[in-house]
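Sanity check

After download, print the first record. It should look like this:
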Amino acid sequence: MTSSESIDSTGVQHFTIPKFKFHTGVTLPITVAYRSFNHSASKTVCIPTCYGGRINSTLNFTDGALRDYHVVVVAMLGNGESSSPSNTPGFPQIHYQDCIRSQYELLTTHLKIHDINAVIGFSMGGQQAYYWAYMYPTFIKSAVVICGSARTSPHNYAFLEGPKAALMNSVDYADGDYRARGMTAERGLRAFGRAYCAWAMSAAWFRERLYEKSGHADLEGFIKAEWESAFDGWDAEDVLVLARMWQLGDVGSLREDGDYTKALKGIEARVLVMPARTDQYFPPEDSEIEMKYLRHGELAVIETIWGHIGGGGANDADTAWMDERIARFLGES
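Expected structure tokens:
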């Protein structure tokens, strides 16, 4: 069960949707967790959470590029703050369109917002930004995709199979029966984090031993302190349901013909695509392909050796560069 002590709930509010129909056809009451910053501002930006992210750990740019915006940070379904396997009996496998529809309900029905200036997202949040732009073309003016993609690549899919297998084959996951046995799958979650570790940063980051500059005496100490504990407080099924949704990511799935290039061509919003140069999940080469089909796309590569996490706020210099680039992009709209 997700530990409430592990989640910073400062400023977090909840909106309930009594009857929400999931993509799978299942209908359940759900709750969407969110935090609203500067709610009196006339311009609005929505920021969905990323994989492993909570509302209050999400980079929100409210001290910089978005200081004059009403910023709504929303916990995507499955993250343990909004409805998830850990807190909702019968919770099904989710798809990105479920997250976007629940966020749209929050913004329009609950917060009475009629349109938004942008959706900004990192990693899985970036994939959600792409879904937002396709699903609600008259509601969203711009999208900022940070270290994300319109379709999860086969390489990205295969990477996720490793950490998933480490968790699912652990003794305390008990073939998914851990809750019934009164366990928390702690060993499995630590194995998941250890298997995940090498992918988050780049080879250059490890070559330059930047973990030592973060205060760790050696690589093993870094892995134990930062990555074996990365999913402490998470429920195993929450971790897995999000990983599977990530693997299923493809804006083409929103079309009957499944063509993701046509989906990209159909996006009317301006899209700022910001891959990290050394990202192993969502490399800039994938973003360059997407740019061929976006009608109003801009590519701005984050030149960093911090890999994927460079786009999530791990390195101050990268964060400052992104902040300036986002401010300029939104100022041009």
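If your output differs, re-run the checksum step. Summary of this record's structure: The radius of gyration is 19 Å.
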